[in-house]
Every structure is written in C-alpha cells, then in structure tokens.
Write a structure and sequence with these properties.
globular, mainly alpha, single chain, 15 helices
C-alpha cells in the first residue's frame, strides 16, 4: 500500500460523512447523567464548596501545583458562586439532553463540569471521567440535529451526513479502545486475574456489593471462567471490536460486563454510561431503527 493510499484511507476513516443518530442517543443519555451528577453535588453543596468544604481551596491548589488543572472554583470560598456555577452546569446538562441550543449547551456543560471536576478531583470516579470524555467529543458533532428540540424547532428536517459526526464517533471509539486495553493490561499485573479468583473476591467485597453473588464461591470453575473471559475481552477489545463479525460479540459482552457491574456491584450510573459509550460502535442507521424515532426518509 502506497503512502498516498494510506493517507486517503486515514482521511476516509476519520472524515467520511456520517449520520448523527448514534451520537444523538449518546447525547441524550450523557446530558441526563450530567444533570444528575450536578444535582447530587448540589444536594451536598456545603460539603464540596465554600469555607466548610471537606477539601479546602488551599488543599486543591496545592494538589494541582504540579499539574495544569485550573478552576476558578479553587480560588474562592464563595458558596453562592458555587451555587450559580452548579445551576448553570445542571441547566446546560438538561439542555444537552433535550437538544436545546446544542451548539452552545454541550460545550458549556463540558466546561462547567470540567471546572467542577478539577475542584473536586479527589472525589471523582470513573463515571465523571466517562461523561466528560463523551461530552468533549460531542462538542464537535451535530448530535443535536435529530431527536432534539433544536430539530423540532427547525421543522424536523432530515439530518445531513457530516464529517464532524464521523470524527466525533471515531474519537470516542479510539478512546474506548485505549480505556479497555489499559484496563486489561492493568489487570494482568494482579495475581487474582491469573489464578481466576478475581470474580470471587469482587463478589465477596461488601464495599461494592449491592446484590449477593456469594454463590459463585460454591462454583469456583464458573468464577474462573468469568474472570478469564473478562480479562480476554478487555485485552482484545481494541482489536476485535473493529471486525464486523466479532463486533456484535464484543458489544454483547460489554453489555453483560457493565450490566453486571451496574446490577451487582452498586455502580449503576457507571455501568449504564459505559454501555452508552459503546453505542458509538453501532451503525447510526441501526440505532435509528432500534429507537424508531426521527424522520423515516434517510
């Protein structure tokens, strides 16, 4: 393959015009989750912001001294300012979900959440990182052109395939591959993933347990199979997800793994958002058919 052909293939991979249906589904779920996250922070406002916060502004500034992580919320003790910020962020997340002023609401939701995340860095979990990742890439897409108030106000005109939809989709896909690959490589450093006992130790941990899986202890072979299958899936995801024959299997396992995390390990929001992120690997027209929404003429 010549360099010219390679360059042409790469350009086609990233910039071929794409439809917005899969991204619109991701936008709806991510916007709703952003609004939920900010609502939760607002319910414990004084614990996170202001002079009586669990982590002072001085501590946060010291924590970020060696890194470039700026947020004006770390330079003020004003609870009122934090309230205003969170209301704006929650509103932007809601508008993002509804698809209202998407071109503005999505970047505002991303920036407002990022600033809050930098202020509350030690309190963050995988959920916050995933919604920030998805929102960042949605900033460059036309996800508000379907299944949105914007589309309704514009007369529900048929969406147009555009290069920025495909670029946003590819960036989400590649980011997911990196997440799963390094997640799998990290697990390879733990002996429990080699001897097949990781599933049992996870099931026996009361820290995350929301529904009992202790019965796995009486079927150690099943626990070992689940452990090694999960490890193989994570390590091979970045390769097998691109093949059209193996992709359905990888996505089905993603639903099982993250659905299990949501149901049995108490991380419902994280499990749901990881499944949502995997929608990026589903053909946009297939998403449209599944949802049975939008214009019938494609």
């Amino acid at each position: 393959m010549t360099s010219k052909t390679t360059a042409s293939s790469l350009l086609d991979f990233f910039f071929r015009p794409g439809m917005p249906y899969a991204l619109a589904a991701i936008r709806i779920a991510t916007g709703a989750m952003l609004a939920y996250i900010h609502l939760i922070w607002m319910l414990r406002m004084e614990a996170f912001f202001g002079p009586n916060a669990l982590l002072s502004s001085e501590f946060i500034r010291g924590l970020h001294a060696e890194q470039w992580k700026w947020t004006y919320l770390a330079n003020t003790e004003s609870t009122m300012l934090a309230w205003v910020h969170e209301v704006v962020a929650l509103t932007a997340g809601g508008c993002m979900c509804l698809g209202l002023a998407s071109r503005w609401s999505i970047p505002i939701a991303w920036l407002a959440t990022l600033l809050t995340a930098h202020r509350l860095a030690p309190f963050l979990f995988g959920l916050d990182q995933i919604v920030l990742m998805l929102t960042m890439y949605l900033c460059i897409a036309d996800s508000g052109s379907v299944w949105s108030l914007d589309a309704h106000l514009a007369g529900n005109k048929p969406p147009i395939a555009s290069w920025n939809n495909n670029l946003a989709t590819r960036l989400i896909q590649l980011h997911l591959c990196v997440i799963y690959l390094f997640g799998g490589l990290g697990k390879l450093r733990g002996w429990m993933w080699w001897d097949g006992s990781a599933t049992w130790f996870t099931a026996a941990s009361y820290e995350y347990q929301s529904s009992s899986l202790l019965w796995i202890g009486s079927v150690p072979t099943l626990g070992a199979i689940a452990t090694h299958a999960t490890l193989f899936w994570e390590c091979s995801y970045s390769t097998l997800i691109w093949n059209r024959w193996t992709r359905p299997w990888m996505l089905a396992i993603a639903v099982l793994v993250h659905g299990g995390i949501a149901i049995f390990l108490g991380m419902i929001t994280f499990g749901v958002m990881m499944i949502v992120a995997n929608i990026a690997f589903i053909d946009p027209l297939a998403v449209r058919r599944c949802c049975s929404l939008g214009d019938r003429k494609v």
